[in-house]
Each structure stands twice: as structure tokens, then as C-alpha cells.
Design brief:
Blueprint lengths: L2 E6 L3 H12 L4 E4 L11 E4 L3 E4 L13 H4 L9 E3 L4 E4 L5 E4 L3 H9 L3 H25 L5 H7 L9 H11 L3 H8 L3 H11 L13 H4 L10 E3 L5 H12 L3 E3 L4 E7 L2 E7 L4 E9 L3 H8 L6 H8 L9 E7 L19 E4 L3 H12 L8 E5 L14 E8 L11 H19 L7 E7 L1 H7 L36 E3 L13 H18 L1
Parallel strand pairs: 1-2, 1-12, 2-9, 6-14, 12-18
Antiparallel strand pairs: 3-4, 5-8, 6-7, 10-11, 11-12, 13-16, 13-17, 14-15, 15-16
Helix pairs in contact: 1-10, 1-16, 3-4, 7-8, 8-13
Length: 519
């Protein structure tokens, strides 16, 4: 055989799987269709010296895994810059919120707006941290009924039966309702609701409280940003794999996963090259894997179940801009420069977010989109030429399928300018600083990353598609109905984001299967 394990796609989850298998002594070959490595965690140079992320930018989740330390990625060029405050939220009245890794500093920031909410926030963080310690432990193993029951054993986490019952009730709430029940000030509510919405589901979805509950762990392990761009993570992973005898090959688009005697045995590229292996791991989307790459194998019952996976309709777009200066928010506080150290949440009220989602449900781009502004050149000057900056604007909500068959190419410029006009209301003159921009509409996201419907989470993060249901019960342990084929992507447990947990878990399952075969 050519190799032990073939990995289809060089997204960060696939590279994590390959890196661990290479660490354990297996021969791995990663095949990437594009000329750049990294999938949706990739940084490209644009506009003459600007380092632009073309996918995920904010590294919040991977720091809650052992991946960076296990693989000693610092030796391969990965250097993380802490982000603190990790989030800020400016408001039209000149007030703002600042979320620091230090809980006391965050509470003090909230107290400037509302004393009740400051203490409510402290209590919220302390209440949810023990549960999320257990949840994140669950995220680093395949989900089973037993492991989930053990995780949610509230007797271990709370003192009284009443407290356990109340916590269980909150878990079944929407995160919007949980926020509204906990806090009084609409500014606090808006910032937290917009942060929760980054996982995809709207604030009204039932049993979504954990999308804001996990926020409690950031005060234990804060986010950090790779020096040189988000893609430095995947570059380090690729370097690790090569250093341990593996291959990471760009411009090798897989056309078909090969099946012999009912097993996945290798792949054929669009150039006609054939790679064979003892296992095949697909980092590609579940629909791409089964409906495209396995087009000559999928049985009717498997196809039917795969087609019914709720991928969803995407929910965002992003503008990657080169600018002369960063947004200058209109604030009553004098330390405005601190606003740029993390991400900025542009969402003045909960109703503002609900209105944007209502536009999305009509199949229309949000009239007033909520925005996450990312100003990473503030903490990493290497991203831009001297005296210049990068500004990324992620906006919600933007449906992949526009009403009445609308054309994203025709409205891309208009929608990008709309994002800047919203920024101008919070930071006057932002649009005047624009040098150039790369617009990633839902259509561009889908095409560049081979991501159906432009859903950056691959599969909707709703309760019936989480844990042992993600993406289907029979695939929740990373194996698939086709023997020899495994999945390592955001569509697997525990889900999307720059996490690496699906790849980490998949690597362990592949290793177990290879050991069984050897015995």
C-alpha cells in the first residue's frame, strides 16, 4: 500500500488527525485540492503585503484542548498572542463593555453600566464553569449515552436537588431567554446574545443555552491569536506532519474515494493519480464525501439519511479589508485604544439582532446586520505594511439562498458597503479608511471552501444534531457506514469553530481500528 492513512482535505481537523497519527508512527498522506494548505484556517497575502485570513480567524476553542502542547507546535513556528480584553462592545450612547480574561476586571466593566448585572455575571460564570469543565472533557471523546449521562450528572456539580433541577431547566432554555432571565441591561443582553449567535442558532432556539454557557470557560483559558495570521496554525500542523514522515500535498483534488470488496481502499485525484491506504479519513463536508466522492458506492438507505442531514442555509458573510487606520469608536471612556485588542461586538440591542434574523428568515440580507469587527493588526503588526492595518467584518444574517433566486455576485459590493455604513455609526469615518477589500459572500465561502450552503459549522448546531446525533447516530464515533472510511470535520462531534476536537477524536478512533486490525 502507498500509505497507512489518507486524509482528504487539509482543514485543521484533518491536519490534527494526520499529525497525531504521524506522531504515533503511522504513514500519512494529506491531499488538498487548493494550492494553499489549511482549508478554512488559512491566511493569504493580498493587496501588496496584507496577510488576510480567508476562513476562521478567532482562536477561542483550541486552547481548551491538549493539541498545541501535545504536538509541540511552537517548535514548528506557531506563536500565540493573547487577546485581552478578548471582546469589547461599543454602544451608540458612548458606553462600552469589555470582557477580560480576569473575571474581576470584567465585572468592574459591567458595573459601569449596571451593578445588578455585574454581580449576576459573576454568579453566572461561577455557576456554569463546573458544568462546562465536564462538557469540554466530553468534547474530547466520542459521545455515548454513558459519557453524556456522566457529564450531566448534576449531583456532582450542585449541592441541592433544587439547584440541580434549576440547572437542568436552564439547559433546555434558549440562550436568548437565559440571558434575558439573568441580566437587566439591554446592552449586556445584546453583547452576550450576539456572542452566542456566533455558533449559528438564533437566540430563540430551544435547548441552546450552552452556546452562551460555555463562555464561562474563557475566564479560565483566554483566547489567543497566531502571530502571522490564523493560517499559522495549519502551517505548523503541516510542518509537524512532514517532520514525522508524512506528506501534505497541495493541488491534489480528490475526485473519488475508491471502494473494493465493500471497504474504502484509497482515492483517485482529478489528475488520475491513485493513492491507496489502510484507512481513508475525509476532512471534507459530509455531503461532499458521500454524495460526490462516493458517488459510485452509496446505498439508497445511506444516501437517504445523508441527504436528510440538516446542513442549513448558512448565516454570514465577511469582508477582509486593508485600511489606513482602525475604527475609532465614539466612547466616553478615554482608554479607547484597548477596544482593538480583541473582537468587537457591534449589536446595540437584542431587538437589533432579532430584526437581522427576521430579514434572514425572509431570504434577504439583514437591513442592519450585526457585526463582529476583528482588528488583529493591533496586536500583530506583521499582518500589514508599516502604518497600515487589517479590518475583518463578519456580518449576520446573510442567507446562502436569496429570496426569488437573487444573485450574490450582483449585490456583493452593496452588502459590503452596508457593513461599512453600520461601522460608521459606531466609529465615524471607518469607511473613509478603506484601501481595498476581499468580499466573501455566502456564495464565495461555499465555493472556496467546498462548504455546502456556506454553513461554516458544516451541519446545523441544533440539539438534534449534537453529541451522539452528530451528524447521524451511526456516524457519531467518526466511523462511517463504509468500513475503512472515517470522518474528521466540523460536521462531527463536538462541532465547528477553530477547535480541532473532531480531528483529535477521529485520530484516536482510527488508531484503535488499526490496532484491532493488527491483532
Amino acid at each position: 500500500m502507498d500509505t497507512d492513512v489518507i486524509v482528504v482535505g487539509s482543514g485543521h481537523n484533518g491536519l490534527v488527525t494526520a499529525a497525531y497519527l504521524a506522531k504515533w508512527g503511522y504513514r500519512v498522506t494529506v491531499l488538498e485540492r487548493r494550492d494553499t494548505i489549511g482549508g478554512a484556517v488559512c491566511t493569504e497575502e493580498m493587496f501588496g503585503g496584507y496577510q488576510m485570513d480567508v476562513g476562521g480567524s478567532a482562536h477561542f476553542l483550541i486552547h481548551h484542548t491538549p493539541i498545541v502542547q501535545d504536538l509541540e507546535l511552537a517548535k514548528y513556528g506557531l506563536e500565540y498572542i493573547p487577546l485581552d480584553p478578548f471582546m469589547t462592545a461599543p454602544f451608540p450612547d458612548g458606553s462600552d463593555l469589555r470582557f477580560y480574561v480576569d473575571l474581576d476586571r470584567t465585572v468592574d466593566s459591567i458595573a459601569r453600566l449596571n451593578e445588578h448585572d455585574a454581580e449576576a455575571y459573576r454568579a453566572f460564570i461561577k455557576r456554569w464553569q463546573p458544568l462546562n469543565d465536564a462538557v469540554f472533557d466530553l468534547f474530547l471523546k466520542p459521545p455515548t449515552g454513558r459519557s453524556i449521562a456522566s457529564t450531566f450528572a448534576f449531583r456532582k456539580l450542585h449541592d441541592s436537588r433544587r439547584d440541580r433541577t434549576d440547572m437542568l431547566r436552564q439547559l433546555f432554555q434558549s440562550y436568548g431567554r437565559l440571558i434575558n432571565d439573568t441580566f437587566e441591561d439591554d446592552r449586556v443582553r445584546a453583547a452576550l446574545a450576539w456572542w452566542g449567535a456566533q455558533s449559528g442558532p438564533p437566540p430563540t432556539d430551544a435547548a441552546s443555552a450552552e452556546f452562551i454557557g460555555w463562555h464561562s470557560l474563557i475566564h479560565r483559558t483566554g483566547p489567543a491569536r497566531p502571530l502571522g495570521g490564523s493560517g499559522m496554525l495549519t502551517q505548523a500542523l503541516a510542518a509537524y506532519i512532514r517532520d514525522h514522515g508524512g506528506e501534505v500535498l497541495p493541488n491534489q483534488e480528490v475526485d473519488e474515494i475508491l471502494v473494493e470488496r465493500g471497504r474504502a481502499t484509497g482515492v483517485r485525484t482529478v489528475h488520475g493519480d491513485v493513492y491507496t491506504g489502510r484507512r481513508v479519513v475525509s476532512n471534507a463536508h459530509v455531503w461532499v464525501t458521500f454524495l460526490n466522492l462516493l458517488r459510485n458506492w452509496v446505498p439508497a438507505d445511506v444516501r437517504s439519511r445523508i441527504e436528510r442531514i440538516h446542513v442549513g442555509n448558512g448565516f454570514g458573510m465577511v469582508v477582509r479589508a486593508a485600511v489606513d487606520r482602525l475604527p475609532e469608536y465614539t466612547l466616553s471612556d478615554t482608554s479607547a485604544d484597548e477596544m482593538h485588542k480583541g473582537i468587537q461586538l457591534i449589536c446595540p440591542t437584542p431587538q437589533y439582532l432579532n430584526d437581522a434574523y427576521a430579514d434572514y428568515l425572509r431570504g434577504e440580507p439583514a437591513k442592519d446586520p450585526a457585526i463582529v469587527a476583528m482588528t488583529f493588526s493591533r496586536v500583530d503588526p506583521s499582518l500589514a505594511p508599516p502604518g497600515k492595518h487589517t479590518l475583518f467584518l463578519w456580518g449576520q444574517y446573510y442567507p446562502y439562498r436569496l429570496r426569488d433566486g437573487g444573485d450574490w455576485d450582483a449585490i456583493a459590493e452593496r452588502e459590503a458597503r452596508k457593513l461599512f455604513s453600520v461601522m460608521d455609526r459606531f466609529a465615524p469615518g471607518t469607511s473613509d479608511q478603506l484601501i481595498d477589500m476581499y468580499i466573501q459572500t455566502p456564495k464565495v465561502i461555499a465555493e472556496k471552501h467546498s462548504m455546502p450552503n456556506a454553513n461554516v459549522m458544516h451541519v446545523e448546531m441544533v440539539i438534534d444534531q449534537m453529541f451522539m446525533f452528530r451528524p447521524l447516530p451511526e456516524m457519531s464515533n467518526y466511523a462511517t457506514p463504509l468500513p475503512g472510511l472515517y470522518m474528521a470535520n466540523a460536521g462531527q462531534h463536538p462541532g465547528g469553530g477553530i477547535f480541532g476536537a473532531p480531528g483529535y477524536n477521529c485520530a484516536h478512533e482510527v488508531r484503535r481500528s488499526l490496532r484491532r486490525r493488527m491483532r
